[in-house]
């Protein structure tokens, strides 16, 4: 697993390059578009991480498929990550860059709870998140009855799960591991 320092260095390097050549807004737009592709059921992440497929095939695929949609800078960034064996951390790099360099300073955060939160509870949670991450966020609050209680916060690929459902699942796993 790639460490946080490497994630930060690669993301910072890409942002520095993209600021000079195509502008930060365009570089972040490429990252968002690629992140959305990775989140989809496309198998793109498995393809790029596969050891059975050569670098040349992957690089050709990147240029052929993304040539019209992503900047040359982002395509070269992807190829660098492939050469260095760091492509598996692309989602973390994108999340870091978006949290750190978002022009508006506001990242979308999804908050799910089993029941509707009171306005004061929402404000308290929002204030705590902004203090912890030292960022401004745009919030999308929804109800997810399957959580049973508590809240689940999603920021990019990061999930903070304080739900009763997660606690019950953890307890179930611990009990299943016990031998009598």
Topology:
Layout: H1 4-21, H2 24-39, H3 44-49, H4 55-66, H5 72-84, H6 90-101, E1 106-113, H7 119-133, E2 136-143, E3 151-155, E4 158-161, H8 164-177
Parallel strand pairs: 1-2
Antiparallel strand pairs: 1-3, 3-4
Helix pairs in contact: 1-2, 1-6, 2-6, 4-5
Model description:
By secondary structure, the chain is α+β, with helices and mostly antiparallel strands. It has two domains: 98 residues, N-terminal domain of the delta subunit of the F1F0-ATP synthase (Peroxidase, domain 1); 72 residues, 3-Layer(aba) Sandwich (Glutaredoxin). Helices cover 59% and strands 14% of the residues. The chain is built from eight helices and four strands, in the order ααααααβαβββα. It has a four-stranded mixed beta sheet with strand order 2-1-3-4. It is globular. The two termini are 35 Å apart. The mean pLDDT is 85.
């Amino acid at each position: 697993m790639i460490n946080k320092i490497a994630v930060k260095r690669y993301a910072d390097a890409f942002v520095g390059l993209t600021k000079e050549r195509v502008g930060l807004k365009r570089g972040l737009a490429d990252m968002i578009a690629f992140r959305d592709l990775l989140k989809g059921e496309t198998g793109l992440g498995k393809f790029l991480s596969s050891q059975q497929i050569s670098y040349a095939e992957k690089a050709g695929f990147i240029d052929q498929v993304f040539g019209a949609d992503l900047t040359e800078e982002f395509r070269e960034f992807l190829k660098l990550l492939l050469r260095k064996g760091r492509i598996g951390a692309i989602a973390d790099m994108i999340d870091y860059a978006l949290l750190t360099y978002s022009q508006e300073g506001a990242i979308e955060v999804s908050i799910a709870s089993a029941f509707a939160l009171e306005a004061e509870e929402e404000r308290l949670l929002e204030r705590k998140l902004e203090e912890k991450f030292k960022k401004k966020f745009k919030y999308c609050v929804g109800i997810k009855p399957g959580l049973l209680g508590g809240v689940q916060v999603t920021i990019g690929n990061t999930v903070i799960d304080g739900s009763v459902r997660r606690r019950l699942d953890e307890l179930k796993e611990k009990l299943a591991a016990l031998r009598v």
